[in-house]
Each structure stands twice: as C-alpha cells, then as structure tokens.
Amino acid sequence: MDFVKLGNYIDCLESTYHIPAAAITVYHNDRCVFRHFAGYADAAGTRPMKGTSQFFLYSASKVITCTAAMILMEEGKLSLMDEAGKFYPAFARMKVKAENGLREAKNKLTVLSLLTMTGGLSYEMDAEPLLQFRNQKHHENIMEDAMNAIAQIPLDFEPSTHYQYSLCHDVIGGIIEKASGIRLGEYLQSRIFEPLGMQYTRFGFDETQNPNFLEQYSYKDENGCKISRAIPKICGFSMIPGYESGGGGLVSCLDDYGKFVGMLAAGGVTADGKRILSEQSIDRMRTPSLSPVCEKEFIRWDQGYSYGLGVRTMVDREKKHAKSPIGEFGWDGAAGAFNFIDTKNDLAMFYAQHVLDCSPAFDVIHPTLRDLTYECFFS
C-alpha cells in the first residue's frame, strides 16, 4: 500500500481549489491504514486541521440515520412497509399537488419510500409550515412539531412514483424516535456512537463547547475566481436549537466517521468485535431499490450509480469511469464531506472539508479521491 499520491492530492487542494482545510482517512480490514491532513481549522491559520476537528456533516448524516433504521428493523421495531402515519398521524392525511390545486394522496408514505427518497417530499426549507415551526416560541415536543410541520407541506408527487432528494430522511429520524421510544440522538448514541467510540459525534453545535470546530466557508465567485470565504458556523437544516435532523444535523470529525464507515466495510462489526449491523442488512442497504422511472431520475444526478436505502450504490463502472467495484456505496454532504464503503474488499474512505457551494468537490475531488484510494491498493 502506497498512499503518497493520495496524500499529495490532499496537499494540493488549497492551491488548486481554495479548500482551506482537508483531511482523509482510509480503513482496510477494519483498521485505519492512512490519515492525512492539510490546512488549518481556523481562518487565522493558527490551529492545524486534525482528526478531532469537528464540522457539520450535513447529508453525510443520512448514512448514519439510515443505518439506525436498519438496526431498528433487526430489533423488530420497524419494517420497510410501515406507514409514516403509524408513527405520526399527520402523515396519514397527506395532500399532493395536482393540476387544479391539491388532492388527497392515494399512495401511503412508507419507510421504504422515505429511505429511497421517493416519498414526494421536497427540500423547501422556507415552506410556510417550516417557517411557522421555526418561529414558534415554545415546543412541547420538538420532533413531534417538526414532523407535523413537514406533513403540512403538499407532496410534489404520489409517494413511490418518482425520485426526489428531500426531507425524507428527517422523517426517518422522527420515525426512529417513535419506534425506539427514545430521542433520535440517544438511539444513535447507544447503538452506534458509543459502541464505536465516536465521542465527538452528536446533534447540535455550541461554539463555546466546541473550541476545535472547523471554520465554515462558502465558495464565492470574485472577479472570475472561486474563493472560499468564511461564513457563520450555522447548519440551516437543524432549523432550531434542539431539533435533531436525521437528514443533515449531525456534527462529527474525521476520526469518528472513519470508525463508522470502517465498521460498515467490515460487515457491521467493530474493530473489537461488537456487532452493530448484520451483513444482510448492509447488503439490503446497498441494493438498488428504485423503479425504472425513479432510476432514470436518479441517474441525472449520478451516472453509474443507483440508489439503495439511503445510499448511492455503484451499478456501472464504465459509465462512471470508476475504479471501485459494483456494490461500492456511500454518500456525501453539502460542505463537501464524502465517503465510500466497499464490503467486497473491506475498504472504506472518508474525506472531510467544510466549504459550502463547492462544485469541484462533487465534480472532481470526490471521484478522484475514490479512484486514487483504489490505486493505492490495486495498482
């Protein structure tokens, strides 16, 4: 294993793409075989990036949330065909957009349609019910109020008929809370974070309690050049303090998330032998689960991949010009975090940056890191 090319690539990201801080970890046979850091955690350049530097995962939270849903299924507390209305009655009375206004939805919103992003929900964060939720002065139950607000937003289409990236996994987070009987964060802590030793991963951010939190940036176009500019450390998907967004609200660090993807690549077992999830559930998670119509809609997003239960999954290496095998799976986050998991080779990688609106991350950096990782092992 020679990781020189991978390390060199991370080192050049600041000069090439103006990524102020970047880090990568690679797991093989459930142990960390490579870690590399570049840049600084703060804009002043006084704190080097390190393995415990925390940042917003954004949608990289989704893989953790969907893993938790699979654990609940193994515990017999949840099934793919359970209806969202079983847990939150407001979802049993969904409205769907039609030519002449709104009508009652014919199809039910199920755990399967939520996991596969075919629920008909949107990512319209400024929808009136969500604005009212954020402006509400007092919440008896934050998750309950959030789910009721989401249920008031008309569906864009009948559940299970189209693919659309949306708040579906936030609803999965709410369902986990109801099905488990404890808060979402508590369930993740007991079933995933604690067994894996992920001590820096949680919902919520308080700068006074997170002195090593990464500066957050936004990719800006200034005089024809793309520059990363520091912005407030806010995650808009968390909506209000105390809301635990399963779709985008977790805070983590390189070392913690590396343990998580390493566990999945190892078939659901931690380095010290604790079983988190069965191999069968991981296989189900990465199995393509979209109808032909939905598949075509997802391919517009990501050529060469299909979509399983909360993760992209490799189905055509040639279309993607990829060095990873069929069945490699994972996801990414809005600020540029990226992961892949390969159970065939017991190989996983997690990359961290903290720059919003950074198109090179998704178009160039992620696929390059994926392929360079495979070159380190199989060139």
Automatic annotation (TrEMBL):
Pfam families: Beta-lactamase. InterPro entries: Beta-lactam-related, Beta-lactam/transpept-like, Diverse_Enzym_Activities. It comes from the Bacteria. Coiled coil: none annotated. Residues 10-351 form the Beta-lactamase-related domain. This is Beta-lactamase family protein. The lineage of its organism: Bacteria, Bacillati, Bacillota, Clostridia, Lachnospirales.
